[in-house]
Design a protein that fits this description.
By secondary structure, the chain is α/β, with parallel strands linked by helices. The protein is built from 4 helices and 8 strands. The longest helix has 15 residues. The radius of gyration is 16 Å and the shape is globular. The chain has one domain: Purple Acid Phosphatase, chain A, domain 2, CATH 3.60.21.10.
Length: 171
């Protein structure tokens, strides 16, 4: 199964204050997010992280990754210097069950195939930016500090309006 998440900010002490996260320390935040992730992600699952995974060294980030279930794909965010020269993608395209999905750290007003009602999953805004059409903030602050499964994304998209530039029957 696929899961989507972002903006975890492991080891980022100030994010607790910036985003009013309900944790008394960075260690408590890290442990809760590891626990939450492992409560839904199993060993064979794939987790796509839409940036800002950690604000720490590569070694510290590696220790967190080793404790997380599943295989992990990392997209670039603002605070991913831990990746060093192994920088990753800025944007990824996935096709799942006939749905086109664009994942990026940043929210976009239009995206690849948005005129065909493709989906856009983003982070960066920490739950403060309303979605447009078939887009959703997959950051932990917007999703109870949990990664979202593909079936959960499918359910969320059912209740969202069409993309503003959707061509409908015209295509």
């Amino acid at each position: 199964m696929y899961f989507f998440t972002g903006d975890e900010h492991y080891w980022h002490k100030n994010i607790i204050t910036y985003c009013n996260r309900p944790f008394s320390s960075v260690e408590e935040m890290n442990e809760r997010m590891i626990y939450n992730s492992n409560s839904v992600v199993k060993e064979g699952d794939i987790v796509i992280h839409a940036g800002d995974f950690a604000l720490c060294s590569e070694e510290e980030a590696g220790k967190i990754i080793k404790r997380l279930n599943g295989r992990h794909v990392f997209l670039n965010g603002d605070h991913d210097r831990w990746m060093g020269k192994k920088r990753s993608w800025d944007i990824r395209y996935y096709k799942m069950e006939n749905e086109s999905i664009i994942v990026c750290h940043y929210c976009m007003r239009t995206w690849f195939k948005s005129h065909y009602n493709s989906w856009h999953l983003y982070a960066h805004s920490h739950g403060t930016l309303p979605s447009i059409g078939k887009s959703h903030d997959i950051g932990v602050d917007n999703n109870s500090f949990l990664p979202l499964s593909f079936p959960k994304i499918v359910e969320l998209m059912k209740s969202k309006p069409n993309n503003p530039n959707y061509l409908g029957d015209r295509h």
